[in-house]
From TrEMBL, chain A:
UniProt GO BP: transmembrane transport
The protein, known as: Amino acid ABC transporter permease
Coiled-coil residues: none
GO cellular component, one term: plasma membrane
Domain of life: Bacteria
Family: Belongs to the binding-protein-dependent transport system permease family.
Organism: Sinosporangium siamense
InterPro entries the record matches: MetI-like, MetI-like_sf
Species lineage: Bacteria, Bacillati, Actinomycetota, Actinomycetes, Streptosporangiales
Pfam families: BPD_transp_1
TrEMBL record, chain B:
Keyword field contains Transport: yes
InterPro entries: AAA+_ATPase (IPR003593), ABC_transporter-like_ATP-bd (IPR003439), ABC_transporter-like_CS (IPR017871), ABC_transporter_ATP-bind (IPR050166), P-loop_NTPase (IPR027417)
Residues annotated as domain ABC transporter: 6-241
Keywords associated with the record: ATP-binding, Nucleotide-binding, Transport
Keyword ATP-binding: yes
GO molecular function: ATP binding; ATP hydrolysis activity
PROSITE patterns tied to this protein: ABC_TRANSPORTER_1, ABC_TRANSPORTER_2
Originating organism: Sinosporangium siamense
Protein name as catalogued: Nitrate ABC transporter ATP-binding protein
Length: 246, 264
């Protein structure tokens, strides 16, 4: 099976190279893309842009996690919070990110704050529902245990509720990491804040297919690395669970 | 001042159920009275849904009663307390903690020294025979071993009363018999008062001094039986004693009559 996959990739690259020979301006080609990646790293300052983009993403994602986990905990723990907040959260979950962007520009301008807000809106909601589910499940299973052993208040929160909900929160982090990266790149693309997204929009203006492919590939690599990192953190945090579903 | 450890005095538990316009009152428990002496071992026996687990949770204070009174050591109770500890049917261990961490769990609100907590926990882990496994997580243990942790956790708070809700119900037959012998050994060693919920007639007879048989709808105690065997009962041979089979038959007849009364 593995050979078939490798063969598939080789055939794809060959076909792409062939297409590139016919019209490099539109299709680019693997060799042109590799050359472009090298050029961007050596002359274009791509490394700095990658770090800047990832740093912004991580900061926004951290805000999103704090807000999302707190909100999720509230609606999971308190029925009143769930009744009041849930309709808005469901609406927010359903609305396309691009529809919120104009509002965020009006509120936050087109700088770093806008990018952070975009990430929070795009990913915070993805942590709310898993955290709420984890909180409810933990309360369902351990409420009587805690009460029977006179464990309440702060102790219940930190020794039962938080560790019990942690795997659910980790799942939320895992499913939102790609979206956080996408949100920051799209944000940069739309407002021209320096980063991977801006490279893409510049390349688009110059009709530079080589650079578009190069940046897309770098973004893909960054995304894959982040996903692997979060997956590893998830497995480590949930090591006590016999079956960790992927 | 009463000499009884637990006094259940005409206790009732009812709750409303169903959609808003067709609310029905369900009597989970009605007119239940029972007294248990200090150091006694009493089983609550009956079919599923007869209210025996509800009564056990009421004794712990996990579920409020709607009529009557439950007194522990002469004082009416409303909430869980440190004089009682609960052993759950499905163990309810904290899966992210080790065996040691699980047994330490109820001590963390009362004992600030970690070394002191662990010393107490280790004593009871040793009592249930799990010293070699104290660094293991629950999912690495068999069901029987997990329930040993559940028992150690209950003993760790040094309660007067152990409330056990079908603690061996989830175990296979062989493990179950082993655990019964183990429980009697621990009971004789610690002198706790035990209230033991089960739907197994054999288990109730083998373990208890006295058996309260429940009937359902509404849940109430229909009969009480004294078990004539002396302790220690480590010999499983008593299961072949004619008094054992007689008692078993008598209780079965009672339970069967109850089944028939509401199956038609």
């Amino acid at each position: 099976m593995k050979y078939i996959k490798v063969a598939g990739v080789v055939v794809f690259l060959l076909l792409w190279q062939l297409a590139g020979q016919i019209n490099p301006g539109i299709y680019s080609s693997p060799t042109l893309v590799v050359t472009e990646i090298v050029r961007l790293f050596t002359e274009g300052g791509l490394l700095g842009l990658v770090f800047g983009t990832v740093a912004t993403m991580l900061l926004g994602w951290a805000f999103a996690a704090v807000i999302g986990v707190f909100t999720g905990f509230l609606i999971g723990r308190y029925r009143l919070a769930s009744l009041v907040l849930e309709p808005y959260l469901v609406a927010l979950y359903s609305v396309p990110l691009i529809a919120v962007v104009p509002l965020l520009v009006i509120w936050f301008g087109i700088g770093q704050t806008f990018l952070l807000a975009t990430i929070v809106v795009a990913t915070g909601i993805m942590l709310v529902f898993p955290t709420a589910a984890g909180t409810r499940e933990t309360v369902r299973v351990y409420d009587q245990v805690a009460r029977a052993y006179c464990v309440s208040g702060r102790h219940f929160l930190f020794k039962v509720l938080l560790p019990g909900a942690l795997p659910f929160i980790a799942t939320g982090m895992r499913i939102s990491v790609q979206r956080a990266l996408m949100a920051v790149i799209v944000g940069q693309f739309l407002v021209g804040h320096p980063g991977l997204g801006t490279l893409l929009s510049d390349a688009r203006v110059r009709l530079d297919a080589d650079e578009v492919f190069a940046v897309a590939l770098v973004a893909l690599a960054v995304g894959a690395a982040l996903t692997a990192l979060v997956g590893w953190a998830d497995r480590t945090l949930s090591a006590w669970r016999p079956e960790v579903t992927s | 001042m009463s000499t009884q450890k637990i006094e259940i005095d005409t206790v009732g538990k009812s709750y409303e159920t169903g959609p808003r316009k067709k609310r029905k009152v369900v009597h989970a428990l009605k007119d239940v009275s029972l007294t248990i002496a200090p150091g006694g071992f009493v089983s609550l026996l009956g079919p599923s849904g007869c209210g025996k687990t509800t009564l056990l949770k009421c004794i712990d204070g996990l579920i409020p009663i709607t009529e009557g009174e439950i007194r522990v050591g002469g004082k009416a109770i409303a909430d869980p307390g440190r004089d009682r500890a609960f052993v759950f049917q499905d163990f309810r261990l904290l899966p992210w903690r080790t065996v040691l961490g699980n047994v330490c769990f109820p001590l963390e609100t009362t004992i600030s020294s970690k070394a002191e907590r662990e010393a107490i926990a280790k004593k009871y882990i040793d009592m249930v025979g799990l010293t070699a496994f104290e660094r293991h997580h629950p999912h690495e243990l068999s069901g029987g071993m997990q329930q040993r942790v559940g028992i150690a956790r209950a003993l760790a708070v040094d309660p007067d009363i152990l409330l056990m809700d079908e603690p061996f119900g989830a175990l296979d037959a062989q493990t179950r018999e082993l655990m019964q012998v183990e429980l009697l050994r621990i009971w004789e060693l610690t002198g706790k008062t035990v209230v033991f919920v089960t739907h197994s007639v054999d288990e109730a007879i083998f373990l208890s001094q006295r058996i309260a048989v429940f009937s359902s709808r509404p849940g109430t105690i229909s009969a009480e039986f004294d078990v004539p065997f002396a302790y220690p009962r480590t010999d499983l041979g008593i299961r072949r004693d004619p008094r054992f089979t007689d008692l078993r038959q008598e209780i079965w007849r009672l339970l069967k009559g109850d089944q028939n009364s509401f199956s038609d």
